[in-house]
Design goal:
Blueprint: H1 3-20, E1 24-30, E2 34-42, E3 45-52, E4 63-67, H2 73-89, H3 96-109, H4 116-126, E5 132-136, E6 141-148, E7 151-158, E8 169-175, H5 179-197, H6 216-230, E9 260-262, E10 268-270, H7 271-278, H8 305-329
Antiparallel strand pairs: 1-2, 2-3, 3-4, 5-6, 6-7, 7-8, 9-10
Length: about 325
């Protein structure tokens, strides 16, 4: 195409561009060497598209370059390749508007593009063969099922328009873990996501250069690793598995002797094993987790170690008295 014909095409489509592609927020360059435009759906689904005209255009395809401050390199690379394939199918025809429309439509219909890198890393680094992930672009959500043996946790992660400045939200679809662990998983994922976008309330712990960071990957990582871990975790008291092999037999009643209790350090006890351990010496310095040595704090057992030691001593004294009486009559 000669320079005059190219200029005619440029003039014609520049006037049509804003009407046909309303997501064009800025025309940065519009010349016979190249066209550069900004396409923006939201602050975080924004990119700059550069189209370069080869000497024999339109008998050869446009060269496409995509850059963005918020979208990942791999996504941009793949989208650029798709654009060039689209141009190759349109050789001999006008390619400018068609390829710009393609990118605009992609950004509008794929809201999860803002976390594409995280999703790739989740698939590559976190998920095991039995886990599953499904992207739901229309709902801007990620459905994830973490599995270990017969246990599973099915969660929905909703990605807001202002992600990653705003945290992801996690909702429970279904699970066969106990209610206590359902609440723990959900609360921890919510807190992990919050910490990604809010600086610590304790100013001593706060970094002077706190920066918000994406929250999908760390929240999913916690969930998958926790599901894989706790199914096989053993009770610190009896050294048997905390959860039964078959989730049908999971104890949900919190006062049941075999209800699984999680300590703040992350290790677990059956309730009966925890009570027995907390009532058995040594008591000095408070009871410590036999697995990691951390001080035990648990909402169901708040008796001070000094009082528990006094009770134990009293119980032992009574037993000695009974033993003496037994010996006397034997």
């Amino acid at each position: 195409m000669g320079n005059l014909e190219l200029q005619k095409e440029l003039d014609e489509y520049k006037n049509k561009l804003q009407a046909k592609v309303p997501r064009i927020t800025k025309v940065m360059t519009w010349s016979q060497e190249y066209v550069k435009v900004e396409i923006s759906i939201t602050k975080f689904r924004t990119l700059i598209m550069t189209l370069r005209f080869p000497d024999r255009y339109p008998e050869t395809n446009l060269l496409v370059e995509l850059t963005s401050k918020t979208l990942g390199h791999n996504l941009l690379f793949g989208l650029s390749a798709q654009c060039e394939d689209e141009c190759k199918r349109s050789i001999g025809e006008v390619q400018i508007l068609r390829v710009i429309q393609k990118v605009s439509k992609f950004l509008e219909e794929k809201p999860l593009c803002c976390c594409a890198e995280e999703i790739s890393n989740i698939k590559r680094e976190i998920l095991k063969s039995d886990d599953a992930i499904v992207l739901k672009q229309k709902q801007s959500s990620v459905n994830l099922i973490a599995r270990q043996g017969k246990y599973y946790y099915d969660a929905m992660f909703c990605v807001p328009d202002d992600y990653p400045e705003a945290p992801i939200r996690n909702d429970l679809n279904a699970t066969n873990f106990s209610t206590a662990f359902q609440k723990y998983f959900q609360a921890q994922m919510t807190e992990i996501a919050r910490q990604c976008v809010e600086p610590p309330l304790n100013k001593k712990k706060a970094s002077h250069t706190f920066e918000k960071r994406p929250s999908l990957f760390p929240a999913v990582k916690f969930l998958v690793e926790s599901v894989h871990r706790y199914v096989n975790e053993v009770c610190c008291g009896c050294n048997n598995k905390g959860f039964p092999e078959d989730p049908v037999n999971v104890i949900d009643e919190s006062s049941n002797r075999y209800h699984v209790e999680r300590l703040y350090c992350g290790h677990i006890f059956h309730l009966k094993c925890l009570v027995k351990y907390m009532k058995t010496p040594p008591f000095q310095g408070g009871k410590k987790c036999p697995s990691c040595g951390e001080r035990i704090f648990h909402e169901k057992y708040k008796v001070p170690p000094e009082l528990e030691e006094a009770r134990w001593a009293h119980k032992q004294a009574r037993q000695r008295e009974l033993d003496e009486v037994t010996d006397f009559f034997s």
